[in-house]
Amino acid sequence: MNLESLESRLKEKYGNSLITHRDVLSAALYPKVFEEYMSHVMRYSNLVEKLPTRAFLVPLAEDEDVEIELAKGVGTHIKLKAAGELQPSGRREVFFEANGVPRVVEVADTRTADALVKKAVREKSDTSILGSVGAPMAGSVIEVSVKPGQGVHAGQQLVVMSAMKMETAVCAPCAGVVTQVRLAYGRVLPDGGSPGGNEGCQNESWR
User: Fold this and answer.
1) Which of 4, 40, 106, 139 is least crowded, fewest Cβ atoms below 10 Å from its Cβ?
2) Is 173:127 a contact under the CB 8 Å cutoff?
3) pTM of the model
4) Range 124-205 classified under CATH 2.40.50.100
5) 3 state SS for 137-156
């Protein structure tokens, strides 16, 4: 591999100031990992490298602080004060102090947004409603046999689950129309987790 040619391509793509000899070697040895790393740097700047490893991997707790060395002899003291409510846009305000000066910044909180979606998807079935079908046991979904809008008859297979090397078919308790399917192949459901629902069971509805 021609490292000089690679260095030229990297500098043309990312800029001369961001590419070092170490970066060239990293790109040569681990091209995909390096590309992901540079995508992160281009979005957040290379100052992310200045964060201590623990602060980068584990979010700070309220009133926890960290010392960041920006350059030799130049540092800043950061203390997290609070995080605001999650907005419908998936963003929240973060309040902190930089060298004792109060600051606020709005950030995207994708992990929390994803968690809210997963929580909504994994709600329990309503056992008081005949058409609300839940998982009879904890296990993994290995087959989804129906889709929303599909008509089903009593006893028709809806989902197949696997637990402890045993497969179990989850069937419709009555005839109806599937209104929701709240799972996908490979998802792990707790006991009672809701696969979905239908309309038509004694005028009841799956929820």
Assistant:
1) 4
2) no
3) 0.43
4) yes
5) CCEEEEEECCCCCCEECCCC
Query: What value does the mean pLDDT of the chain take?
Result: 80
Reduced to 3 states (helix: H, G, I; strand: E, B; else coil), residue 121 is helix
Q: Which structure tokens are listed for 73?
A: 């002899």
Q: How far apart are CA 175 and CA 118, in angstroms?
A: 29
As a CATH number, domain 51-112 is: 3.10.600.10
Structure tokens at 122: 């994994």
Q: Rounded to whole angstroms, how far apart are CA atoms 26 and 7?
A: 11
Q: What is the DSSP letter of 62?
A: T
The single-letter DSSP state of residue 124 is: B
Q: Which residue's entry shows tokens 């980068």?
A: 56
Q: Which residues contact 11 (CB under 8 A, 6 or more apart)?
A: 19
Mapped onto helix, strand or coil, the DSSP state of residue 63 is: coil
Q: Which residues have a Cβ under 8 Å from the Cβ of 30 and sit 6 or more positions away?
A: none
Domain ranges for the chain: 3-48, 51-112, 124-205
* Residue-wise pLDDT tens digits, 72-106: 888 899 999 988 888 877 888 989 999 999 999 99
**3-state DSSP of 155-172:** CCEEEEEEECCEEEEEEC
CATH architecture of 3-48: Orthogonal Bundle (1.10)
Phi and psi at 51, nearest 5°, equal: -70, 140
